[in-house]
Amino acid sequence: MNNSLPTARDKVLFTPGPLTTSLTVKQAMLRDAGSWHFEFNVKVKEIRQRILKLAGVTSEKGYECILLQGSGTFGVESVFSTSVPEGGKVLVLSNGAYGERMVAMLKCLRIENTVYRTGENEPPDPAHVASLLEKDTDITHVAVVHCETTTGIVNPIASIGKTVKAAQRHYIVDAMSSLGGMPIDFEDACIDFLVSSANKCIEGVPGFSFVIAKRDPLFANESTTRSLSLDLAAQLRGFEKNGQFRYSPPTHSLLAFEQALNELDTEGGVEGRAARYKRNHEVLMNGMESLGFKSYLDAKFQSYLITSFHFPEDSKFTFDAFYRKLSDRGMIIYPGKISQVDLFRIGSIGRIFECDVLALVGSIQGALTDMGVSMR
Ligand SMILES: *Cc1c(COP(=O)(O)O)cnc(C)c1O
User: 82 CA distance to ligand 1 centroid (A)?
Assistant: First the structure.
């Protein structure tokens, strides 16, 4: 398909983000919004409030939503660079690429850190976190990924959060690939900072991340921030002062996000969306199993957002050829191999439905036949 004729529709994305979005979300961007204009500022304010509502928290209870230009990674980095005091230390719980990315950030920021690593198919043990916190009193913050998109594993953020709270440390959760698609109880999980972005389960387009933060720990180290553009406290002060982003806002991405929030409401909020994603996941698991594929994770740790499958054992299988054959059929899966095992990943999130997943399974079967791969 390398001719230059425009196609009737885009390839369907079975990736963990950016995702396939609705036509109406894309159409919302066919506007030019005056970025410093009062009408736009009202939208920004409404979006910040709607995110808090979606998360089930309020400013009366001390939570704020801060929007930040840039992708999700920028949001995570902004939390570290703003909230960890000089001489502070972060315990990172890592079982995949995004946990390791946090460690890399802390290194760049020259923030003291220690890592509790578990296998990519194994969640961290809250009791072990408790003992680490007891032993190392220098630790001021604990950071974890909710759904580790590397494999699709769900980490137990609530039981870890209770441990962190009991030890009186601050708690940072990367919920990039889960917020909007999986219910999260902030107060139960004792979360101080949660990071997510526009283009995952909320089904917007890329352009900004957002942080839901408790006010007190956010402002605790205001004088010692490590970054100008990634200073979350200053960003919030900006919104509170004049309703504006400090620097050029991602106007089109915000317009798309507003529409994406409307569509999330229409679908029945997080619960409604979760039901569709669960159904997508179920259809995927059944289809893949019937083709002879084995999923990587123990079912009790498996999210319904992203699923990792082992490569077929047949040496005729190569991921590159497989990926291309699916692309030729109009379907994009998650390329590249991040995990330590030979796995490929398929997302069940974005504006896709059961029929799309069934079509994917059919295409996978076709691709295997083309390649002469037998599943035994
Ligand atoms: C996607 C993702 C990120 C990074 O987001 P970018 O928008 O690519 O910067 C971080 N953490 C998790 C868990 C993710 O799924």
Answer: 19
- Which DSSP symbol is given to 334? B
Q: Is the pTM of this model over 0.85?
A: yes
* pLDDT tens string 158-214: 999 999 999 999 999 999 999 999 999 999 999 999 999 999 999 999 999 999 999
Of 238, 265, 292, which closes a domain? 265
Q: What is the mean pLDDT of residues 241-248?
A: 94
Q: How many domains is the chain partitioned into structurally?
A: 2
Alpha-helix runs per DSSP H in the chain: 23-27, 38-55, 72-83, 97-108, 126-135, 157-166, 215-219, 232-242, 251-266, 269-291, 319-328, 354-371
Specify the pLDDT at position 336: 60
Answer whether residue 327 is part of any domain: yes
In a domain, residue 5? The reply is no
Query: b/e string for 66-104 if b means 16 or more Cβ within 10 A?
Result: bbbbbbbbbbbbbbbbbbbeeebbbbbbbbbebbbbbbe
Residue from 105, 147, 148, 176 whose mutation best tests the ligand 1 pocket (most atoms within 8 A of CB): 176
